[in-house]
Amino acid sequence: GRTPTKEEYEIFINVYHKTGLKQTPNFLICEQGSFDSPIMFGIFKKNIIIPAHMSSQALPLVLGHELTHCKRNDTVFKLMLAVRGSAYWFHPLIHIFIKNMNELCEQACDEQLLLEATEEEKQQYCRLLILTAMQKNKINTIPLTTFKGGKLEMKRRLSNILTAKKRSGTVILLTIVVISLIFSACTYLKT
User: Fold this and answer.
1) 80-88 contacts at long range (C-beta below 8 A, 24 or more positions apart)
2) Which regions of the chain are under pLDDT 70?
3) Spatial contact of 48 and 27, defined as CB atoms under 8 Å apart
């Protein structure tokens, strides 16, 4: 990747300051190749790679999304999912569980990013998701957070954004914990 232009870096810094992150992630622009969708990766030092074809109008939303993943430490969560998936690779429900948890992770990120957004900003974000989904991404691994997903996942994300109701973070966390406990209990009872 290349270093961002002055304009791209200024946009990054403006969005970064709004997130309240303590550590500045590395920010690179990928001219061409493997990254057709914005991604964030890294456990201790976060890295954000944005494809060069992203417009300067889309950049604040894309960076906001990826920086929200940084703030939420979603790569650590996705790494834990990958470890769990590796341990129970033979269990058919683990694949459904991981897919659903990844989808919930993206939806929670969308929701947090758009908490104060106007209807117009939400619609702009949805258009950006659709455009990004049309790109062919060659990388899709668990410890990465990507800006897009499959058609059904994208439909659910768009529906969630456009019909969003304020949800309590406690309710979402409690739901995740209950699902995890049920899954663990089912696995324990089988052995």
Assistant:
1) 81/142, 82/142, 82/143, 85/142, 88/187
2) 32-35, 135-150, 164-175, 177-178, 181, 183, 185-191
3) yes
